[in-house]
Write a structure and sequence with these properties.
Elements: E1 6-8, E2 14-16, E3 24-30, H1 39-50, E4 55-61, H2 73-84, H3 103-111, E5 127-130, E6 136-140, H4 150-156
Length: 157
């Protein structure tokens, strides 16, 4: 369950994910200089549409794909706020693959493998939908636009 994990906030402080217990959560590895970066707009739309019904978007910047997230936490937060008016949490930059992969992403990949059972995340804006019980119920490819997730989210709310 994701509530078992603690991650780092953008300011470096520990953030226990049990604060999202009982909510439907969409966890996304993001980047500011990616072809999929405009998905921030759709993610914010989902956040605003469903937050009052117990839904949260959690963004984790990642620089492992084409060095598309080179900024520090302040630069990332500024970009998200000014460019896409993001109000959902954007956490500290993480690795999602390899020896230094964040334990949360190791669990997400294990619970929801990709195509043909592959575990590795292939690119930025891979999305994991987590139900109210804290279990991963779906993994979405970077090409899946946030707007396409509404029916799946509503089914869990």
């Amino acid at each position: 369950m994701i509530a078992d994990f603690t991650v780092r906030g953008a300011d470096g402080t520990a953030v226990p994910l049990d604060r999202y217990a009982g909510q439907v959560v969409l966890i996304v590895n993001t980047a500011s200089k990616c072809g999929f970066t405009p998905q921030y707009e759709g993610l914010e739309g989902l956040h605003r549409r469903y937050a009052d019904r117990g839904f949260a978007v959690l963004a984790f910047p990642c620089n492992q794909f084409g060095a598309q997230e080179p900024g520090d936490a302040a630069e990332i937060a500024n970009f998200c706020s000014l460019t896409y008016d993001v109000t959902f949490p954007v956490f500290a930059k993480v690795d999602v693959n390899g020896a230094g992969a964040d334990p949360l992403f190791e669990r997400l990949k294990s619970d929801a493998p990709g195509v043909l059972g592959s575990k590795a995340i292939k690119w930025n804006f891979t999305k994991f939908l987590v139900n109210r019980a804290g279990k991963v119920v779906h993994r979405y490819a970077p090409t899946t636009r946030p707007e396409q997730l509404s029916a799946d989210i509503e089914a869990l709310l």
